[in-house]
Write a structure and sequence with these properties.
The complex is a heterodimer of chains A (646) and B (319). Chain A has 646 residues and is α/β, with parallel strands linked by helices. Chain A has helices at 30-40, 46-59, 69-72, 76-81, 111-119, 136-147, 167-184, 217-223, 448-455, 472-485, 495-500, 510-529, 543-551, 567-573, 578-583, 614-630, and strands spanning 16-23, 88-93, 97-103, 123-129, 152-158, 190-193, 243-253, 256-262, 273-277, 281-289, 303-308, 319-321, 328-339, 350-355, 358-372, 377-381, 389-402, 413-417, 424-433, 460-465, 490-494, 533-537, 558-564, 605-608. In chain A, 26% of the residues lie in helices and 27% in strands. Chain A has a six-stranded mixed sheet with strand order 2-3-1-4-5-6, with helices on both faces. A six-stranded antiparallel β-barrel of chain A has the order 7-8-11-10-9-12. A six-stranded antiparallel beta barrel of chain A has the order 13-17-15-14-18-19. The longest helix of chain A is centred in the C-terminal third of the chain and has 20 residues, at 510-529. The two termini of chain A are 59 Å apart. Residues 1-12, 58-64, 74-84, 229-233 and 635-646 of chain A have low confidence and may be disordered. Mean pLDDT of chain B is 87; it is low at 1-16.
Chain lengths: 646, 319
């Protein structure tokens, strides 16, 4: 009987961990194979086996024999159905390696489970029934394995006993598999003939296939090289590119400030220059701190805490990266989605995109091209349903930092969450930005802290929103003068002024209004970045547009002021004669009259200009501004735990 | 049945790390767990770590210290005290809280105490439901915790093998195994509505042997009950039950006898079976473990009420 004791097999003792994905259709004997691995590696406890024996008589499908398949089919409901419904995790070890099996079901409805198992796997084992050959299931599984970026693949040609252990039958399948891999752009997989039922070539090679001189399945798994131990890492040529997304800031007291996160790729060493995205600042790594002492270097997969030479404002969602190789940044990019929800994709509806510490709103835009994994062709579609795979374009509210998935499995992937019920509805793998893909913003060494020291205050954007005639510009100008008198570098951005130049090409349709605010927001953020206190006065009627501007700013450095006055008061003031023109039909889309205004839900400051005179209102703004830019910093306790919501 | 009957002979398929040694296998598990623990702190406003005082909890606690070093653990630890834990466990718990300096919250179901629910007069199902499951739900509600760490491992029991790392619970703390959020890469979805919560299992991918090796490699202190010593026990239905205090109810003809025993898992003393053993150190335990032929939860009476019973308990809110 096969046993895993052969210590003379010659492969080195690694004592590391390999994560496997097993995929095959219901009848390929996959559960039997897994049961066999556990059984033959002696990690099966007697009471576990006794429970299986008991179940075998109740629901087993192996006709009185111990049904090894039941070992892999955990949940009671599944045992009753005889099929696997979800991803099960199983654990076994040999002398040389530990293994975690993610068992993805073979039933064709369960693409989502296979994708889930594949996302953390180092290696995939695809089962093929030798009597049936390469089926559409095999093609489907291979396509998903390829899509999820698993480079190491073993094809287990099972049930060799059913064809009399015939070499030519195995060879025919190996040739077919090799063609399939080529079509998918996968490296040629390792093919192993076996019989899980009888134990041939699982652990020992056995005597039934003298013509086969390759390794048994276990021998192969013990020896195979799969790249960095972190597994979900980058394609080989991108191993050296540093990516360390910051999870949180560790700041137990004033003397220590460290940035905690897991290295996705690359290696970090004290003294290295690193670039902080999205700020683009470059700083030097001071220490790599762990509970067990400082490290000389930290490679892929290591969970570490980093301190920097200069105090820099780094928070969750920022990425530490190689100075000359920052991630891409875009608001529009193409990706492959695997749809995982019973509710169909709604094109144009809001979803929440989550990746590492980044979390932002996004919409899927057309075209959606659905992939037929059997034929590997795609066709236009208007939606996606459960288990669909499609190529889509996504548009986010703010810039996403990312790498193409083929370069990095963590910074290249994301999940989509339905904000209505918080369900995870899709998994995404990014292909490329739709434009501006090759723009790498230049980086400087002058930090916001340095600029703040120069100016004597921190940067801030004050965003005045309200109806026409509510007093936004008047208030902003008054505040500007007072702030200048107090030695503050303050400047006003005004809607009408911008429309003379930068925004001269824009009208007043909802789209143009959105673009008007987008540009104004970018200018405000730019001035903000250089240390200014920006006083921006824009009607900015849509909440979504204002929130987008807010998201361009670091948390706590954006202040929304709702300049609130009843419509009749504004209309009575009518300083520019707009209301009169609108009532006369000369202006078609005036906010408040013939276009909507969405008041802020939670502004930092609300000023009722109907009952407050300009001087008092400006003083209120100035007090608040001075407290924010010169007072103690607000928010961000010892653990700045919130997302920046970029 | 084709099982080889004598293949257990040379134990310890993996090397046994000594203090300070870290095989890649343990490093990778540790890094993954630290990532998970940090992610919870970052995504939730009020997390809590369940502290059962057992070996898995001890490892989880150690990982939490590592995750936030040099800062303190930024959330409290919660112990559900059924009042029937081994007395050594309670002493150990209080000493750890003192030495490590974490915030400890202890909760006991007052209704259960008032009704004098105990494991002798009441069935194990009823007792567990009142003193553990209900107590846990009460404590989580009282603390308004939005995330609760548990030390469960997927290799412990079959229904746990399908549990997510971030496992969603509705307002009534119920688990729906058929409607779980898919979990991909290391992007954990912690979004919830008010009143809902997430149970988090940072040790999901650890095996019992990994836990012991990690304890050895880090010199983590565990309750001495894990190591063999002469202890007073009675044998009941094939299970060795320890006589931990004078509340023990002897059945007719039962008398305590002193045997060298240890525990693979720790719970309420009348419901936790001991195993005969001479393994008195961490490395001896790990060696014994590697050659073990019985799974660790076998000693837990409550798991075997009926086939699939852990899954049913979990649906109702048990960890």
């Amino acid at each position: 009987m096969a046993s895993l004791r052969a210590s003379d097999r010659g492969s080195p003792l690694r004592d590391d961990l390999l994560r496997l994905l097993t995929c095959g259709s219901v009848d390929d004997g996959k559960s039997t194979l897994i049961g066999r691995l556990l059984h033959d590696s002696d990690l099966l406890y007697d009471d576990y086996l006794a429970a299986v024996l008991k179940d075998s008589t109740v629901s087993g499908h192996a006709g009185g024999q111990v049904d090894l398949a039941l070992l892999a089919d955990g949940l009671k409901a599944e045992r009753e159905q005889g099929i696997t419904i979800d991803v099960a995790h199983l654990y076994f070890s040999t002398r040389r390696r530990s293994f975690i099996i993610a068992d993805a079901p073979g039933h064709e409805q369960y693409t989502r489970n296979m994708a889930t198992g594949a996302s953390t796997a180092d290696l995939a084992v695809i089962l093929v029934d030798v009597a049936k050959g390469v089926t559409s299931q095999t093609r489907r599984h291979s396509a998903i394995v390829s899509l999820l970026g698993i480079r190491a693949v073993v094809v287990a040609v099972n049930k060799m006993d059913l064809v009399g252990y015939a070499e030519d039958r195995f060879d025919a399948i190996a040739a077919e598999v090799s063609d399939l891999a080529g079509a998918l752009g996968l490296p040629a997989p390792v093919c192993i003939p076996m019989s899980a039922l009888h134990g041939d070539c699982i652990v020992e090679r056995g005597g039934n296939m003298p013509w086969y001189d390759g390794p048994s399945l276990i021998e192969h798994l013990e020896q195979v090289e799969v790249g960095p131990a972190a597994g979900p890492a980058a394609a080989p040529e991108h191993f050296d590119v540093l990516r360390l997304p910051v999870q949180l800031v560790i700041r137990p007291d004033q003397s220590f400030r460290g940035y905690a996160g897991t290295v996705c790729s690359g290696t970090l060493r004290p003294g290295d220059d690193v670039r902080i995205e999205p700020s683009g600042l470059i700083t030097t790594v001071e220490r790599i701190v762990t509970f067990d002492g400082d490290l000389d270097e930290a490679g892929p997969g290591r969970a570490v805490t980093v301190t920097t030479a200069e105090p820099i404002d780094i928070g969750r969602g920022d990425i530490l990266c190689s100075p000359d190789r920052p991630p891409e940044r875009a608001r529009e990019f193409t990706a492959t989605l695997v749809w995982m929800s019973g509710s169909d994709l709604m094109v144009g509806r809001d979803y929440q995109l989550q990746q590492a510490g980044q979390s932002l709103r996004c919409r899927v835009t057309e075209p959606v091209r659905r992939l037929d994994v059997d034929t590997l062709t795609s066709a236009p579609a208007s939606s996606m349903t459960l288990n669909d795979i499609a190529s889509v374009t996504l548009r986010t509210d703010a810039e996403l930092m990312f790498d193409p998935y083929e370069q990095n499995r963590i910074t290249g992937s994301f999940i989509l969450i339905d904000p209505r019920d918080n369900a995870t509805v899709a998994a995404g793998m990014i292909k490329a930005a739709t434009r501006a893909a090759h723009i790498i913003p230049s980086a400087g060494r002058v930090s916001p802290q340095t600029r703040a020291k120069l100016l004597g205050h921190r940067a801030l954007t004050v965003w005045f929103t309200g109806l026409p005639g509510s007093g936004k510009s008047t208030l902003a100008r008054a505040a500007e003068a007072e702030l200048a008198a107090a030695g503050v570098f303050a400047c006003v951005l005004d809607g009408d002024n911008l429309r003379f130049g930068l925004n001269a090409d824009l009208g007043f349709s909802p789209e143009d209004r959105a673009e008007n605010i987008r540009r104004a927001g970018e200018v405000a953020a730019l001035l903000h970045r250089y240390g200014a206190v920006v006083l921006a006065a824009f009607i900015s009627p849509y909440r979504q547009d204002r929130d987008r501007v807010r998201n361009l700013h670091p948390a706590g450095t954006f202040m929304e002021v709702f300049v609130d006055a009843p419509l009749d008061v504004c209309e009575e003031r009518d300083p520019k004669g707009l209301y009169a023109k609108a009532r006369a039909g000369v202006i078609p889309d005036l906010t408040g009259v013939s276009a909507p205004y969405e008041p802020p839900a939670a502004p930092e400051l609300r000023i009722d200009t109907a009952s407050t005179d300009v001087g008092r209102a400006a003083a209120q703004v100035v007090d608040e501004v001075l407290a924010l830019i010169r007072g103690p910093r607000r928010g961000g306790g010892p653990l700045a735990s919130g997302s920046r919501g970029r | 049945m084709t099982r080889p009957t004598n293949s257990k002979s040379p134990p310890a398929p993996l090397s046994r790390p000594e203090a300070g040694e870290f095989p890649d296998r343990l490093r990778r598990l540790e890094d993954e767990s630290i990532h998970i623990i940090r992610e919870v702190r970052a995504q939730f406003s009020n997390p809590v770590m369940l502290y059962s005082i057992g070996k898995d909890s001890s490892v989880m606690l150690h990982l939490a210290r590592k995750a936030f070093h040099p800062g303190p653990i930024p959330f409290p630890l919660l112990h559900i005290d059924t009042t029937w834990k081994f007395s050594e466990m309670i002493a150990f718990r209080d000493r750890m809280a003192d030495e490590i300096g974490f915030e400890l919250v202890v909760y006991t179901n007052p209704d259960g105490v008032a009704a004098q629910i105990n494991p002798f007069d009441h069935s194990s199902q009823h007792y567990t439901d009142v003193m553990k499951t209900q107590a846990l739900k009460q404590a989580l509600d009282a603390g308004r915790y939005d995330a609760a760490f548990g030390g469960a491992r997927r290799d412990e029991e079959r229904s746990r093998a399908k549990e997510r790392v971030f496992s969603f619970r509705d307002r009534l703390h119920r688990w729906d195994p058929r409607n779980q959020r898919p979990e991909l890469w290391n992007h954990y979805n912690g979004r919830i509505s008010a009143g809902e919560s997430i149970r988090v299992f940072p040790l999901s991918n650890w095996t019992e042997l990994d836990v012991w090796h990690y304890i050895a490699a880090n010199g983590i202190e565990v309750v001495p009950l894990y190591f063999a010593a002469p202890r007073p026990v009675v044998e009941r239905d094939g299970t060795l039950v320890m006589v931990d205090d004078d509340r023990f109810r002897f059945e007719a003809g039962e008398r305590p006898e002193t045997r060298s025993v240890r525990f693979r898992t720790l719970g309420c003393y009348p419901l936790t079976g001991a195993v005969e053993s001479t393994a008195a150190t961490v490395s001896e335990v790990a060696a014994e473990m590697a050659g073990a032929t019985r799974s660790e939860r076998e000693g837990r009476v409550i798991d075997h009420d009926q086939s699939g019973s852990m899954e049913e308990k979990k649906r109702e809110g048990y960890f």
